[in-house]
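Hi U.,

Before I forget, here's the chain from the pilot set. I'm dumping it here mostly so it's searchable later in email.
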Amino acid sequence: MERCGKHFRKRDAILACVRGTDVHPSADWVYETLRQQMPDVSLATVYRNLALFKQQGLIASLGTVGGIERFDGNTAPHVHFVCAGCDAVIDLPQMTVPQSLSSQAAAEAGGQVHVCQLTFTGLCSRCSPK
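Structure:
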């Protein structure tokens, strides 16, 4: 952020928390994680700053998983897998989002694509019947 003083201490901690994990946290997860180190942080502060970070493009919203909005500190295009059993969100780093998909969508819509999120849904290895 712009300053690292006391004024931005909570804001910086919230952003670092989201960027420092690959669990694709919810606001509640961020709050519970931070309040151990920062008891004066409020859930409202977490929600307000997550909304600000989304607006600024510093984090991405993955939409709702199990009825709860989940976030990603990695804003580069990448592929996700969401488990319908345990609600885990897993990055698939070996897969790439094909640029042709965005180009095709833009042509079909007659406009511009700003963001492309590719998400697969199924059962992870822990939830899949053996």
